[in-house]
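Before relying on records like the one below, remember that each one covers exactly one chain. Contacts with other chains, cofactors or solvent are not represented anywhere in the record.
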Amino acid sequence: MQTPIVSKKRPKKTALRRRNRIERIKPAPDAYGREIVEALNRAGAPLSADELAARLEIKRRERRVFDAALAALVRAGEVVQNRAGSLLVAKRIALLAGRIEGHPDGHGFLVPDDRSPSVFLPPTEMREVMHGDRAAVRITGRDHRARPVGTIVEVLERAKRRIVGRLHSEHGVLFLVPDDRRIAHDILVPPAEAGRAKAGQVATVDLVAPPSRHAQPIGRVAEVLGHHADPGMEIEIAVRKFDLPHEFSRKALAAARAMPDALRPDDLSDRQDLRELPFVTIDSETAKDFDDAVYCRREGKGFRLWVAIADVSHYVRHDDPLDLDARERGTSVYFPRRVIPMLPEKLSNGLCSLNPDVDRLAVVCEMAITPKGEVARYEFYPAVFRSHARLTYTSVWEELSSGKANENLQSLYAVFKVLFDARTRRGAIDFETVETRMIFDARGKIEKIVAEARNDAHRIIEECMLAANVCAGGFLAEHAHPALYRVHDVPSAEKVAALRDFLAEIGLQLPGGEIPRPRDYAQLLEKIRKRPDFALLQTILLRSLKQAVYSPNNLGHFGLAFDSYVHFTSPIRRYPDLLVHRAIKAVLSAQRYSDVDWEALGRHCSETERRADDASRDVETWLKCYYMRDHVGGVFSGTITGVVPFGLFVTLDEYFVDGLVHISELGRDYFQYDGARHMLLGERTGKRFRLADRMTVKLVRVDLDTRKIDLVPA
């Protein structure tokens, strides 16, 4: 079996449209943009829009395009308008444009578009802007931390504003306190804009008037969600707080309803028929959508492994209503007891889900794997198949442990071992982490929080998916086809230097040169695994690494030690996987999935992934706070999992919940923060609190609104 040889010759555009039905995503026009900036620079003085148009000899029929280009420059902060209405080049008056990030303490930061250091904005400057707005600032000095300090010159663009929070009343005045604490303003709600909303309810408001230096923002009640303690309210708040798209468009729902309930004869054309192979799905007990199925058999001393992934791209075509909704969402969002899917249920739990004993369409990665765990050959192709059983991690591990597993499971277990050994030899980094699961009562509140048991059944699927993802990345790289790679870049020189300094103080060394390799991290992890301070050292190693992102630039995956890596295995719940499927199928058809703005899609998918993580974490934190209200006054053992200038974050052993021990509670001493050593050190007593140290604490306060748990040393 050989990897398909695909022509790299690009087909004609007309054929591309007709045969592959791949439409184009065109960038917004920036006509006149460069000419506008150059004309303002030449003028040497502010100009009105009409004066600028006259200088550029803009004809009447061109004025609309000119105005649009000028508005885009103003939004981008390249051109600003002074109080007289005249236009200036921002760089000429030393202005920085960027997005505002608010802080719960009332101050904020401008994150510049040019990626220069963030500019600190004191609370007085934050009065006229809100988190998410765009503004132009002038740097006026530096603070005691040597951070640049700015003054807001112009608000360039207001963020789309529907704000969720709880309504309060004071002296007969109704106002909304935003749940997002990065918005420090209370939103006034005049009687005429309140509808039937009452104090104590959770609601969303639309901004009628933005804040100014001398007035609070004014809002109109758009939606009343209910009481803050209603079951599931924490999810309703998070959905709106993080602007999660949670309602499908009418067109997308209509497209889903129009889908067949089962495969049609036309769906099977040009596909390999694998229905006789005994594929199985292996997932958690609570899983409802099944992206992947696996089958393995021995071939001589090696293995033949099939990984079948739901062929979502057969149903969701580029730029159709389902695709537009999926692209906006970027990913499914998983909350305790609720999922906001990327695709309507007709697809996510039906046609695209690899449910047992029904025919399904798939894109298959078939691999020949050597006894040393190397992929000798691989092939991608569209197929029709069926899952012969829906298995769970628990049931598979019980069968493997008891020796009663069938031939397929035994082969899967054997191929996992050789793949894992190859991963170890390759030097991939293997961190030990603890996953938790919330168990709920009939009212939807947490009954207890338990550690999620992991076994080799989980790892079987992980290694099979990793192998398929690597083959997909290699396939697209080999054929020079654009795609979104899952990129985990090398750690920054600054973080590596700080890590080496910390390790040197305790007699350890990170192997490798200025830029260490994954194998260097893996060797150090193995060396320290039995040390009593392993948790501390592992945490510090992990924090020295960068965050993985989606990018069209193939920079490899540092943590997994792969040269080319993509996400291929979850197209039901991740948009980048769907894009990878389209790219693979385009290569197999000797075509190109082209004229897509891969850079913009990479940024968008990375942002939607972070948005989903933030929303899930927010809900889990609220639920944990609600649960811990019944434990105020209790004494618990825990581990210091965070050291910051204002105190310590401690994770409680029994509940896997984090709380803060404020620095003022540590004793009668001046405690100095040592970021390099992840430590607070008392000047007088020499008392030391360090990351991963054990600590006994008392729970003294829980604040649901701020999602904070306060602890004191016991």
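The domain at 162-228 is CATH 2.40.50.700 (OB fold (Dihydrolipoamide Acetyltransferase, E2P)).
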